[in-house]
Amino acid sequence: MDLSKFKISNGKNFSLSNYKTNYTGDVDSKKKALKLLEKHKKKMAELQDKLYAHNKYGILIILQAMDAAGKDSAIKHVMSGVNPQGTQVFSFKQPSKEELDHDYLWRTTKALPERGRIGIFNRSYYEEVLVVKLHNLIKYQRIPEEFVTKDIWKKRYRQIRDFEKYIYENGIVTLKFFLHVSKDEQKKRFIERLENPAKNWKFSTADLKERGYWDEYQKCYEEAIAETSTSHSPWYVVPADKKWFTRLVLSEVINKTLESLPLKYPQLKEEELKNIKLYKKQLLSE
Ligand code: ATP
Ligand code: MG
Q: What is the reported pTM?
């Protein structure tokens, strides 16, 4: 698959309107996609094993999207083949009182993946330039007035870029996915949540209210992606009208990224290598 179709390494001239929500490339059926996903999952398990053993790099996967775009199910389906010991998932909702007592990167920084692990953020510090900007929630953050200036969002983009560069230079590779769903598809999924008793619990009137701000959210996403796409922490705008295609893209990006790292299984120390036969003999003679 040509992943460059979805990848934004430089936000110059970025426009969401150039990205289709229902694109599926040459993967023309769900059946084909599921087969490929299974293959990718096997590969991912191997690569994750190596990442864990190598124990130097961490992978941070950020998922952002409008409601019902499929973040939760993408995590479930894409990551189900990997060793749970090597992954961590954190979901970020409205900040708690304790979280509001800190700077906005505090809660996510605490949750960054350890070396050797894959960390998944279901929503992230990007909410700080999305919902917080859209609903002007900055007033609840108790930032001293002199810092709450007109260019506060520009400053936040810069802070986020700096932060991502900092973690990159310390061995954490960040992959950012925007699950790009259409307004029509969201409507269908909300209706399904209302009609299917097993999905009722997913329905929330708050989601319906946020849907009313659809265009404003799209603009916020567009600006945030344009401002924070870099070669070391690119955004991927992933078509999300077909969930099976979203999952395929995610699994392929994750695998390609892992493959690009110089991962190696650690070797025994020279002394131990020399004595390998001896240790084996010792064990066999028990
Ligand atoms: P689902 O797809 O199941 O609806 P979700 O990620 O939307 O999952 P919810 O509990 O429905 O989870 O919503 C979390 C809400 O918290 C979102 O509306 C999000 O915008 C909001 N949120 C996240 N971070 C912040 C933040 N820093 N400040 C304010 N609101 C936030
Ligand atoms: Mg929600």
A: 0.96
